[in-house]
Each structure stands twice: as C-alpha cells, then as structure tokens.
Amino acid sequence: MAANRERPYTQFNFLVDLGLGNPESVDAGFQEVSGIGTEVTVAEYRNGNEKENNVRKITGLNKSSDVTLKRGVIGTLALYSWLNDIRRNGDAGGLRRVTVQLQSEDRQTTALTWQLMGARIIKYTCGPLNAKGTDVAMEEMVLAYEKLLIE
Description:
This protein is mainly beta and about 150 residues long. It has one helix at about 80-90; strands spanning about 15, 30-35, 40-45, 55-65, 65-70, 95-105, 110-125, 140-145, 145-150.
C-alpha cells in the first residue's frame, strides 16, 4: 500500500485481475474502468404514536454499482468463455474476485486496491464498427458484483 500524500495519484496507471491471478495478462488489459461504487440504503420508519414529527432512518442493505470495463478488441476469447459459463451455469459458472489496483506514477507501488467480490459479467458490447473510421475497435463489459472491499 502506498503512503498517504498531498498530491493525488494520476488515474492512468492501473492493473485489473479478472480473478485469474495475473493482472499483467493481456486478458486483463483495459483502457477504462468506471463505476466502482457502493451505497448503504436506509429505510424510513415512524410509529404512529411517536412524540416527534420525524422519521427514523434505519440502516438497510448494501448495494454495489455495476462496473464497466472498456478495451480494444484483441482477439482473445477468455472473457467470452467466462460470460458463456455464466450463461450456461448461472452463479456456478464463475463468480470471481476481480481486483483493480491503482499504481503510483513509477508503477512500483500500489496506491489503492478495489476488490469486487462475487463478480460476474452481465453485459458485453462490441463496436461500433465503421469501415471509414480510424478508431480502435472497442469492446465493453459490464460486471455486477456483490460486495466492494477497498484496501
């Protein structure tokens, strides 16, 4: 874990481990990771005979937001295989611990780590493909997960 410092870390040095134990693999190389987050919901409750005219806030369930991963098409089928396993076998098809590590500028230390527990691919999108375009062909995966751990 990197030391606390006054100057924030830059956002462009990060590693993603898709639960395979190798964040340096080409299968885990992404251009963008967005949407990491969690929230705790509250339920509002009030008895009819309460003396004060306000509701109580009761802590509810934890919800994690979906995470979007974007990268250039590289021709590997590893992520499609994971998605296909989930389609065929449900949760038994491959809930994983996906880890995102923010690296320091020299890539020698880890500033922060986000662990997405119980992650699975829920959406895959490719394109657009344009015969007149000069952009890189892109694919996008959306992950749903059950719990966020930050180290």
